[in-house]
Design goal:
With 102 residues, the protein is an all-alpha fold. It has one domain. It is 81% helix and 0% strand. The protein contains two helices and no strands.
Length: 102
C-alpha cells in the first residue's frame, strides 16, 4: 500500500486545525459583514441591505456547521485514543502472560 498524501486531512488533528482556521476566517468575515450591515442601514439601499442580511445569515449557519464539525473531530480523536490505549493495554497484558495464554 502507498503512503497517504500530505495535506490538511491526513490526520484528525490536522483536520481539526484546518476547521479551526476556517472558523476564524468565517468569524472575521461575519464581523466585517456586521459592520457593513450597520453602514448599509444608514443608507437607502434596501437591496444591498437585504443581500448583506442573507450573507450574515449564511455565515452564521456556516459557523454553526464548523462548530459541529469541530466537536465531531474531537469525538473521533477521543475514540481513536480510547481504542489505541485499550489495544496497547491489552497487548501489554498478553505480553506479561506469555505466548501460551489465550
Amino acid at each position: 500500500m502507498g503512503s497517504q498524501p500530505e495535506g490538511p486531512f491526513n490526520s484528525i488533528e490536522n483536520a481539526k486545525d484546518y476547521v479551526r482556521l476556517l472558523q476564524e476566517t468565517v468569524a472575521d468575515a461575519r464581523q466585517e459583514i456586521a459592520a457593513d450591515l450597520a453602514a448599509a442601514a444608514e443608507t437607502q439601499s434596501d437591496r444591498r441591505l437585504e443581500a448583506l442580511r442573507v450573507i450574515h445569515y449564511k455565515l452564521e449557519k456556516l459557523e454553526q456547521h464548523l462548530h459541529s464539525s469541530s466537536r465531531a473531530l474531537n469525538d473521533l480523536r477521543s475514540l481513536r485514543r480510547l481504542l489505541f490505549d485499550e489495544r496497547a493495554e491489552r497487548a501489554s497484558v498478553q505480553a506479561k502472560k506469555g505466548p501460551d495464554a489465550a
